[in-house]
Amino acid sequence: MAVKELKMEVRNSGATFKEFAFSVSADELKQVTNSVAAELANYVSIPGFRKGKAPAAMVIKKYNSDVKNEVMRKLIALAFSQIEADKNLDILNCSLAEPPQEFELDKDFQFVLKAQIAPEISLPDYKEIKVDVAAAAVTDEEVNEKVEYYRNMYGTYAEVEGPAVADDMLKVSYTSDFVLPENPPQGLARTVASDDNYLWLNEPELIPGSIKALTGAEVGKEYSFAAEFPADWRDADLAGKTVNYNVKVHGIQRRSPVSEEELCKRMQAENMDALKDMFRTVSLREAESKRHNEIVEKVYNELDSKVPEFELPEEILEGETDKELRQLINQTVKSEADAEEFKKDMENHRAKAKELAKIKLRKMLILRNIAKLEDISVANEELEAQISIMSRYYGYKEDEFKRMIEQNGSLEDLRGDMLMSKVLDKLAQYADK
Fold first, then answer.
1. Predicted pLDDT at 311
2. φ/ψ of residue 212, rounded to 5
3. DSSP state letters, 142-177
4. Phi and psi dihedrals of 225, rounded to 5?
5. Of the residues 1, 219, 250, 292, which has the fewest C-beta atoms closer than 10 A?
6. Mean local confidence (pLDDT), 23-44
7. Which residues lie closer than 8 Å to 75 by C-beta, 6 or more apart?
8. What band does 297 get if pLDDT is binned at 50, 70 and 90?
């Protein structure tokens, strides 16, 4: 492609956006078109010609639509490179301002790109921000609590007499006044009625309110209570409902902790001292992670308080608001009734989403600014490594997971999150006294 630069005019310029109008003369368009046709000739078959030898005019005529699409792609790529060449512009994103007009390959052509520009941000001396967070430490009491936790976790249940107490397991049958829909899911049916089931007197509850109602219960007796299912309950049919239950207790089992010797065998530790050392190491690592997170939170809050207000790019803000609104919908809407209620208050929901988006976008822009000053970036190798970790965590093949996040537009969001995390880690290093 012989054309190296297009005629460009900046228009509708603002603090956080600019529009760039590009003009392509008929002669320039012809140069690009011939270049595209020559490249395409190497991959297509034209009767009577070997690949790469067909005249440009013939390739253009037969593959007119493909040629136009590729010409448009090359022109936009050239336009992008011209905009990016201006080092005075800190471009956040750039796209077509409107769908390009239909163009003829032998006539002048125009198109417009719009760019969201990073605002001017007045940063304080962030390297001098200091926070005081207590050093990470693990007490003997915490280690002993961990020992008891695992002794109970590996413990075995046995039938007991007398009233049920916290953490007991009750063998029960129960009915309720909830009317099941046709062909209900097995989980829903078992939640509202069962002839043979177990209820644990600990969190999370299979039936809301069962711990309070059945603590003190005795074998052979029946108990009634009203279960109030929260609005975000996992079964949409039960979410927000109050259901009356009648429960009969058939048996009570209580867990007996394993011995310290047995626990050492289960945990593959030589003795209790070795096991406690292992627990102490794990707990210390958790405490250090918690301390780091506390430092990060405090230092950013201090930084944020010192950065004056600045204008947010409106188009990006709207996109972030849409994301926040979708998250709010996913958290709130569990049924058709919920959806109807949500729609009624859509204006307030969107206002809430926009406020959350403003906070997140402001944070992103502040940290992005520091990333540039500190020369912090996320290499492709780092991104690939994170994708590999996430794919294993969510149970996907790595290629499948990567393709999925590329298709839903989350790949660059992931890179952005990683960048923000690296910047916050750097700030935490500066801030830790």
1. 94
2. -65, -40
3. HHHHHHHHHHHHT-EEEE--S---TT-EEEEEEEES
4. -160, 160
5. 250
6. 88
7. 6, 22, 24, 32, 109, 111
8. very high
